[in-house]
Every structure is written in C-alpha cells, then in structure tokens.
Design goal:
Elements: E1 5-13, E2 17-26, E3 35-43, H1 58-78, E4 82-87, H2 89-93, H3 97-108, E5 113-114, H4 117-131, E6 137-143, E7 148-154, E8 157-164, H5 168-175, H6 183-197, H7 201-206, E9 211-215, H8 217-228, E10 234-235, H9 236-249, H10 265-281, E11 286-289, H11 294-307
Parallel strand pairs: 1-4, 4-5, 6-9, 9-11
Antiparallel strand pairs: 1-2, 2-3, 6-7, 7-8, 10-11
GO molecular function, one term: pyrophosphatase activity
Protein name: Phosphatase
InterPro entries: ATPase_NBD (IPR043129), GppA/Ppx_hydrolase (IPR050273), Ppx_GppA_N (IPR003695)
C-alpha cells in the first residue's frame, strides 16, 4: 500500500542563521501543503568569517560543522523520505567554497546545493506566499546575513527580482566594527544601501505594489521592538527614530530596547541601516512583517516534487 504521508526535511544554510524544518505532506489531494512538525534554528554567522579575500575562516567553518552535526542527529531520528539542503550568499561568495562544501556535506551526510541569488529570491517569494495572503501586487524584502533580496510580484508570481550584495552581518562588520554605534556610521551605511538598489529603481517602480512584506530576522526584530513599545504601524519615520536611538546608546552592548532579543543585538544596526536605505530609495512609508521565508519556499518546492 502506498504511503498516505511522506516526511520531508528542508535545511536553509543562511549567512547568519541555519534553519532545519521537518514536516509531513499528504500524498492525496490536489494541492499538497506540507505541515511543519519541528523547527530548529541556530545562529552560525557564517558571513562573520568572510575576510577581505572572501575566504571563510576556520572558526566560522567549525560553527557551521557543529550545527550541521546537530542537524544530522535530528534527521537520523526523524528518518525523512526526502531532504533538500541549500546554502546562500556567504557560500556563494566564498573563495574556499569547494573545501567548505566537502566539510559541510561530511558533517551533515547530505548533498548541499549553493543556490544563485535569483534562485534565493524566487524561494523567498514562494515562502512568503506560502504563509501570507499574496493576492495583489506586493513587494517582498528579505535582509539576510550577506545578501538582500527584493522581489516585486503579483499574487503567487514573482515579476521582478534582485539579489543585492549587502547583508546585516556584512554591514555590521563594515560600518559598526568594534560594536560602536553613531549617527555618521548609520548615515554612511544607509547611503551605501540606497546606492546599491538605485540602478534598479525604475524597474521596481514599473511593477507597482500595494503592500510591502518584510521577511527574516531584521524585520522580525523590528516588529518585536515595535510591539513591545506599543507601536502599531511599522513606518519609515519610526525606523529613522529607532536608528537614532541606537546611535544614542553608543555601543551594541548597550542596546536594551524592550522586545529586542539578545541574539539579535549583534547585527541589529547593520540590518536597520539596510532597511532604512531601501525604504528611502523606494519611497516606502509603511511595511509589514511576514513569517514566511526561504526555508518555507524550499519546503513547498520539495513537497511539490515528492507529490508530483
């Protein structure tokens, strides 16, 4: 007798965090939708290990291997019918990619695909649509550790997408080294973020949007701070004030806003500067937060493959 359900696992090796989703999907019905059973997340900060030569250092590689060994143990217990694993911007950039992939695949026991920026953007859009009602024109922004994806779409279809060479870990290290926060560093980081999206502004504006949805850690951190402070709308004006308040604190360690998780403090400033630069360049006044991201898109893709 054919199985009525299959167990699936999807791993997203992001430049800041690694995620493991374990799910099951029904093999009956026309529209298979995976049901997530367990989520595992670990801060690895792979992009923290990138040096000027784009080599990922041994410390970051060790953190990654330790995380993947833990994921391998979870998979051994779960016994999935299908597994998919992707790595994103940090490994895309790494000059020692081949050596690292061998280490990481040995630790995990599964092949790892290093996806392109375009593939990453498509998966992010799919992941956002899997949890949010994307029925009209939307703009999706995902600020990762080493890249930022900005996708204009309609309903379930991405229409225009870019993967930009900036991320919260990279910007944190570049503009706020030593954990020092000040207004001039924020302004420089924001200006550079805006300049990276500037060549594509006309293309984005040709694909108008009614809603702006933010995915992943920076947006969740902003949302959690806003909620804790009773801020009901996420606006560019409030974001600007939050950056000024960060600069006034002076250091990363001094950041103590209500709702700010300890594990997010280290890269908050880098993410805020990117978000401020993008919202200013695209003239975005308000935005929302979605809890779908690349990993949900990856899981949806896997479910479609195994039920085809």
């Amino acid at each position: 007798m054919a199985l009525k359900k299959k167990k699936l696992a999807a791993i997203d090796m992001g430049s800041n965090s690694f995620h493991l989703l374990m799910a099951e999907v029904s093999m009956t019905g026309f529209f298979p939708k995976p049901r997530v059973l367990t989520r595992h997340k670990q801060k690895v900060r792979l992009a923290d290990g990138l040096n000027a030569a784009n080599t990922i250092d041994d410390d970051a590689a060790k953190r990654a291997c330790q995380c993947l060994l833990g994921f391998a143990s979870e998979l051994e217990q779960f016994q999935p019918d299908a597994v998919t694993v992707v790595a994103t911007a940090a490994l895309r950039k790494a000059s020692n990619q081949a050596q690292l992939l061998e280490q990481f695949e040995n630790a995990l026991g599964h092949p790892i695909q290093v996806i392109t920026g375009e593939q990453e953007a498509e998966l992010i859009y799919s992941g956002v649509c899997s949890v949010s009602q994307c029925t009209d024109d939307v703009l999706v922004i995902d600020i990762g550790g080493a890249s930022t994806e900005v996708i204009a779409g309609h309903g379930l279809s991405p229409k225009y997408l870019q993967s930009l060479d900036m991320g919260c870990v990279v910007f944190q290290n570049r503009y706020f080294s030593g954990g020092i926060l000040n207004n001039s560093s924020f302004e420089q980081a924001k200006s550079d973020a805006a300049s990276l999206i500037e060549p594509f502004l006309n293309d984005y504006h040709q694909h108008s949007w009614k809603r702006v949805l933010g995915a992943s850690g920076t947006f969740r951190a902003v949302s959690e701070i806003a909620h804790a402070e009773g801020q009901t709308q996420l606006t560019r004006e409030w974001l600007t004030e939050l950056m000024k308040r960060c600069a006034k604190k002076g250091t990363v360690e001094a950041l103590d806003f209500p709702g700010l998780r300890e594990d997010r403090k280290a890269v908050l400033a880098g993410g805020l500067a990117i978000l401020a630069g993008i919202t200013e360049a695209l003239n975005i006044e308000e935005f929302e937060v979605t809890y779908g991201a690349l990993r949900e898109g990856l899981l949806a893709q896997l479910a479609n493959e195994v039920t085809a």
